[in-house]
Amino acid sequence: MRRAGLFLVALGLAGCEPSPGLVGAPGMRIVSTEAEVAACTPTKIYTTTPGAFGGVVGQQALEFARNQTLANAQEDGSNTMFFLEGGPDDAEALIVRARGYVC
Predict the structure, then answer these.
(1) Which end of the chain is more exposed for a tag (fewer CB within 10 A), N or C?
(2) 3-state secondary structure of 96
(3) What is the pLDDT of residue 74?
């Protein structure tokens, strides 16, 4: 009986998907200038606030917020993202703001 219970727990955990904030959005393209999306259709602006700021934990929270923003845009049909604030080159951001595009 105990083995059956462990098997059910393992089976349940195998079906869990990691949070989009941890894995990002495979297939999303990040551009560094708005000129790269001039011929694309904008979707909307996404805003995410990291859960912590500064130091190692702050960097991880910022990366999580970026990944979550990418995943949200992808769910809405975007395939390209331009970060207005808090992009990959902005290590001290207090907010992540980006515009999604369909290219």
Answers:
(1) N
(2) strand
(3) 94
